[in-house]
Amino acid sequence: MDFTAPAPLSLSSLALNLCLGILVSLLIAWYYARYGRSLSNRASFAPLLPILTLIVILVISVVKSSLALSLGLVGALSIVRFRTAIKDPEELIFLFLAIGLGLGLGADQQIPTLLAVAIIVGYLFIQQKLKLGWKKSHSMYLNIEVDAEQENEVLFAEINRVLMEHVPEADLRRLDSRQSNLSITYYLSITEQDTVIAIMDALKTQVPGSSLSFVEQNNLLGGSCAAFQVFQGVSFLLGGIAGVYLGNIRA
User: Fold this and answer.
1) Does domain 138-209 have CATH number 3.90.1150.10?
2) Each residue of 183-196: pLDDT tens digit?
């Protein structure tokens, strides 16, 4: 049996999957534009989701008919580099939802795919209406610089007292003491944005002449393209296996 010979592609099945993909992806795009909480321009991003779904349906419909094409696609993906940083997690969720819809329809799994998409969108809708979710905690670095007119021990104790009044735990990460300057870095876990203002006001009052800066730790890691980087690694591994497998077939 020749596993490399492509099987006939059903045009009627492809047309049905494309029509279903258009309808369902348009509903997903409308939901994202209407109920999404992303800070980016949702009106310009949402129309791209149906296009992405249709492309995935086409690719999967073509490559599933041939083992050689499937392995060749994996090998090609191993050299693709995704450099676009997707900084909003909600955008990443809807991108994967559009890709998952395309994968399912392209594999002729219409009923399970439509059922899964309906459940996912239904959960998102219920979460939006009932305001379900977890209390978000911001991990922040607090950098303090003080002109050491007082003893360092006194300043350090006063700063610790102020911080412990507003946060449950303040983790000291760095302390630099110079002749006329004291520099301290804390790692804080803050659940309310008003806490930042309260800490600033309290330190300005209790520690005059202090210079403060808050840095959110999550933003130090760059864009949230880690999922694509994992995908690249898996694709690279499968690409190597595909190359060996194709070599054995041709031999």
Assistant:
1) no
2) 888 888 777 777 88
